Amino acid sequence: MASSRKRPRSDLAERVREQLLRHVPAGARVTLALSGGIDSIVALDILAPLARSYPFALSCVHVNHGISPNARVWAKFAAAAARRRGVRCAVRTVDRRPYRPLGPEGAARAARYAVFAGLRSDFVVLAQHQDDQAETVLLQLIRGAGLPGLAAMPAIRPQAGRRAPRLLRPLLGVPREAIERYAHERRCAWIEDETNADERLARNLLRRRVMPLLRRLNAEAPGNLARSAGHLAEANELTGALAAIDAADSTRNGRLSVDALRRLPRARAKNVLRWMIAAGGQAAPTSAQLEELLRQLLAGRDDAAVAVSLDAVEVRRYRGEIWLVAAQSRPPQGFRARWNRRRNWPLPELGGVLRFRAGRGEGISAAALAEGPLEARLRKGGERFQPDRKRPRRALKDLLQEAGVPPWERERLPLLFAGERLVLVPGIGVAAGFHAEPGERGFVVAWDRLVVERPTRPKAMLK
User: Fold this and answer.
1) What separation in angstroms does the CA of 290 have from each of 114, 273, 293, 300?
2) Over the stretch 151-176, which tens digit does the pLDDT of each residue have?
3) pLDDT tens across 352-363, in order?
4) Is-contact 215 221, C-beta < 8 A?
5) Are 106 and 67 in contact (CB under 8 A)?
6) Is this prediction's pTM over 0.85?
7) Residues near 239 by Cβ (< 8 Å), separated by ≥ 6?
8) For the chain, N or C: smaller number of CB within 10 Å?
9) Where are the alpha helices (DSSP H) in 143-220?
10) Alpha helix stretches (DSSP H) within 60-100
11) Domains of the chain by start residue, with CATH
């Protein structure tokens, strides 16, 4: 731990206050990520009195990664530091094993951010500063990152999840030197993490070896790198705005048109594809994945099947349109499930939910269902169906093609049987003889497919 006896002269508190006023409304719930290191202790020392005068509801969370043998001591120190300033601190112990493929640093970061996303708060304050931003830019450069990565850490950003608090970094424009000066002037005590000296960790090696060399080249290197991140963030916003314009001009039936994509210059075509995938909540594809995706989408016959896997989704081409589809395993052979009479009937094996709405004179006749229990089954091939008494029975395959149901959805489309009679095909209709008559009680059935969701694998980059 460290401390000093100098009198306070820093203007850092006012700089943080300006950032808070810009983003945080009065009465908001604010949670500080309190590691116990100098950066978060300084943030706590500034926020505690500010919370009372502004006001906003301030609390802290300390994440115990279980890496250091001193982890429990640090947790007690952080809780005591918050308590001395009249702030409650929750301690959360995390399991890094699900994120092991990301390496020690990445696993700890991913587990930590998972805690942040689940907090009941409006904002999570992170004490990252200008030097952290400069280091992030350099780490992204040596990884060959594109604009989103080189834009580094934003001052404020949302997290995945409708109720997840936003991340706020009010110290992002502050150099490390100013934070250290404040801590000494205020006679703060903090923890020195022994792992910060471990140069096997990329960020430590960069901080201890590379940054001093860059400062010898240019004393303002950290600030200049952080400023470059701001320029790159603006460029990233512009490419996103251009992609939204190109997508709007290239969309048909709510999906991107292959012909419109083909007419775009190659750089803009890649940009709009990347944007479309990100808009679906997915991790950005690598450069190699994006090149291969564009090649497959634009090459070959228009009726050729295209399916490119990207982590939690597949990008497919069908009838000249580009589809973003949740990646799923093949449905089980011989699948059968019996209706439990509930209005919402989940069929996770098929990737969706059958929804039943009671009505009069529409849908499946309730009386007709007395022929046998209602079951969901999959196509075997050769089924024939007659949704209209005035028209002959036809091959179900032809009806599905005419309705524009994509082949991958036909594989997992639940067909509803009463006994051995096919009574309903979602998207096609109710079989003749099973329609509810005028005034008769019936059930209107809709099939809601699984929507593309944000990836849960630890591959997604966290900043």
Assistant:
1) 28, 8, 5, 17
2) 999 999 998 777 899 999 999 999 99
3) 899 988 888 888
4) yes
5) no
6) no
7) 147, 271, 275
8) N
9) 147-150, 176-185, 202-205, 211-217
10) 71-84
11) 12-228 (3.40.50.620), 250-326 (3.30.465.60), 336-449 (no CATH)
